[in-house]
Amino acid sequence: MRRFEKNGWIGSIRILGICLILFWGQACRKQEKASSNVTQPEIRVGLVYDMGSKRDRSFNEAAYRGLMRAVGEWRIHAQEVEPTQPLDREEGIRVLAEEEYDLVVGVGFAFVDILKEVASEYPSVFFACVDGRVGDEPNVVSLLFHEEQGSYLIGMLAAMKTKSRKVGFVGGMDIPLIQKFEAGYREGVRSVDPKIQVLSDYAGVTLTAFNDPVKGKELALSQYDKGADIIYQAAGGTGLGVIGAAKERNRWVIGTDANQNYMAPGNVLTSMVKRVDVAVFETIRSVVEGTFQGGVLDFDLSNGGVDYAVDEYNQDQIDPEEIRVLEQAKKDIMAGMIVVPRSL
C-alpha cells in the first residue's frame, strides 16, 4: 500500500484504518458467502460518501439507495466509505483504486480534483463523480443534474400556495451549484407572481455549511419571523434544521434531493427530488453491461433526473389544478418553451 508523502504518518494511519474497514467488510462478506454457498460477485463497486452519514436522509442516502438497488439487481460486491474528516475522501478513493475495484464513485463536487488526479493514475479503473464535472479522463463519468428545472416547479408551487406573499430559500454552501437551486426557484416564483418577495440565506462558504442543522434552523426561524410562510431548503444535512423550524412554527418547508415528505407530514409541502439514486444505479449498470463511457451524463426533467414529489404524505396539500399547472410547465420546459436560468 502506498503512502502519500504530503500527509505523512498521520495520513498513513488513516489509510491503514480505511484498509482495515475494507478488509473487515470483505472478510465478513466472504464468510457469509461461504456459509450460504453464494458465488463471488462479478463486479466490485466502491462508493465514498461526502461528509456526514450515509443515513443523512438527503444527498448521501440517495446515493446509498442507488447502490443497494444495484446490489439487489446484479451480482455485485459493494464497499462503502464514510469519511469522518475531509482528507478521508481522497484516501478512500485511493484505497479502492489500489484494490482495483471495477467502479469507484465519489459522492459530491468535493471529489472533482481528487478524481482528476487519481483517475489518471489508475486508467483501468472506472470512476464516477456525482455533482462534479471532472474533465476529459476517458475512465471518468460526471453525473450532473439540472436542479434549476425541478426548482422552477417548486417555485411555482410556493407562489401558488403562499398567503403572506413572502417565501424563503435556505442554501447550504454559497456556490454556483446551490445557486442553481435558488435561480430556478426564483424564476418559478416570478412566473406566477413577480411581486412575491423571496428571502434568501446561505449557511456558509465552506463544506461544513452542508452539515449544520443548528444553523439551518436559525436561518429558517429568522425567515419565518420575517413573514415567509414557505421555505425551500437546498442544504443537505443543514436542511434538517430547516424542517425542524417548520415544525416548530407550523409552517411549510420544501425538501430537497431525497423525497423528504415523510419527515414532517403537514409541514413538508413537497420535495424537489434529485435522483442521485438513479444516476448511481445507471452508472453501475453501464459497468455491468460493459457500456461504460467517460464524459458527462445529464439528468433533468426529461429523463426523471429531477422532479417534485407527491405521495401519501402530501397529496392532500396540493390541489389537482395546481398539479395540472405544474405538469404543463414541466412539458413546456422539456419542449424548450421555458428556459430556466442556471445562475442568479
Task: Summarize the entry for a quick read.
This protein has 344 residues and is of the alpha/beta class. It has helices at residues 8-36, 59-73, 87-98, 112-121, 147-161, 176-192, 213-225, 239-249, 276-288, 320-334; strands at residues 43-48, 76-81, 103-107, 126-130, 140-145, 166-173, 197-204, 230-234, 252-257, 268-274, 295-299, 306-308. The strands form 2 sheets. The chain has a 6-stranded parallel sheet with strand order 2-1-3-4-5-11, with helices on both faces. The protein has a 6-stranded mixed sheet with strand order 7-6-8-9-10-12, sandwiched between helices.
What does this entry look like structurally?
By secondary structure, this protein is α/β, with parallel strands linked by helices. The chain has two domains: 8-139 and 277-302, Rossmann fold; 147-274 and 314-334, Response regulator (Rossmann fold). It has helices spanning 8-36, 59-73, 87-98, 112-121, 147-161, 176-192, 213-225, 239-249, 276-288, 320-334, and strands spanning 43-48, 76-81, 103-107, 126-130, 140-145, 166-173, 197-204, 230-234, 252-257, 268-274, 295-299, 306-308. The strands form two sheets. A six-stranded parallel sheet has the order 2-1-3-4-5-11, with helices on both faces. The protein has a six-stranded mixed sheet with strand order 7-6-8-9-10-12, with helices on both faces. α1 packs across α3 (87-98) and α3 runs parallel beside α4. The relative contact order is 0.13.
SSE series: HEHEHEHEEHEHEHEHEEHEEH
CATH class of the largest domain: Alpha Beta
Rg, alpha carbons = 21 Å
Instruction: Please state the second-level CATH architecture of the largest domain.
Output: 3-Layer(aba) Sandwich
